[in-house]
UniProtKB/TrEMBL annotation:
The lineage of its organism: Bacteria, Bacillati, Bacillota, Bacilli, Lactobacillales. GO terms for molecular function: 5'-nucleotidase activity. PANTHER family: PTHR47478, PYRIMIDINE 5'-NUCLEOTIDASE YJJG. Its EC number is 3.-.-.-. This is HAD superfamily hydrolase. InterPro entries: HAD-like_sf, HAD-SF_hydro_IA, HAD-SF_hydro_IA_YjjG/PynA, HAD_2, HAD_sf, PGP-like_dom2, Pyrimidine_5'-ntase_YjjG. Coiled coil: none annotated. The gene is yfnB.
Length: 231
């Protein structure tokens, strides 16, 4: 049985999170009066990524992540701030960033023309992800966007996919395919749920995890060729 339901990760797969984060942080740090923005970002970005990995692993909660990451970052530079207040301020800037990778629109358009049903499946904050999509050119391609905060569960938990299955008419695992850049969230999530996966790996990383992708592609052209062959 070939695939029908394509579950797309958003950040780092279709949405250019790095470019959006850079723009949002610059605006945020300007308002906060941070003079050496590059030094702050060099500390904050890997710290933030590590916290999201801890969330995937169940070591911290989403609330802890959102409300403490900026307090921790500013504390590193000897400045005390209200983490919740900073979260709300930064949210205003990051939620306006809808940059996509070159070719994302064309990819989704061609997949629709091939007859696939497209869905978003993302870990993130509902307000931020919904607004970023609203500022992007890709929102209209999706039948529905599933956001971890709304779902009350997250990738890579099997429950995340079980809840998705309940909300898609006619959904079967055999006809579903999870597509994303993260081995620990997207691919492991598909493994946990019994759903085939595509590891989108544009910078040719080595798989040093236990996650086992069904397919691996390094660009949208390879992904499109793969999916053309599955119709």
């Amino acid at each position: 049985m070939y695939y029908k339901f394509l579950l797309f990760d958003l950040d780092h797969t279709l949405l250019d999170f790095a470019r959006g984060e850079e723009q949002a942080l610059n605006q945020f740090l300007e308002v906060m009066g941070v003079e050496d923005k590059e030094t702050f970002k060099a500390y904050y970005k890997p710290m933030n990524q590590a916290m999201w990995k801890e969330l995937e692993q169940g070591k911290i909660s989403k609330v802890d992540l959102i409300n403490t990451r900026f307090a921790r970052a500013f504390a590193h530079f000897g400045r005390e701030v209200d983490g919740r207040e900073m979260a709300l301020l930064y949210q205003d800037y990051i939620s306006q960033q809808g940059q996509t990778f070159d070719g994302a629109v064309d990819l989704l358009q061609q997949l629709l023309e091939l007859g696939y049903d497209l869905y978003g499946a993302t870990n993130g904050v509902t307000y931020i992800q919904e607004n970023r999509l609203a500022h992007s050119p890709i929102q209209s391609f999706f039948k529905e966007i599933f956001i971890s905060e709304q779902m009350g569960t997250k990738k890579p938990e099997a429950l995340f996919y079980e809840k998705i299955a309940e909300r898609i008419p006619g959904f079967t695992k055999e006809q579903a395919l999870m597509i994303g850049d993260s081995l620990t969230a997207d691919v492991q999530g598909g493994n946990n749920a019994g759903i085939d996966t595509v590891w989108y790996n544009p910078i040719s990383l080595e798989n040093q995890t236990n996650a086992q992708p069904t397919y691996e592609v390094k660009n949208y052209q390879e992904l499109l060729a793969l999916l053309k062959g599955k119709k």
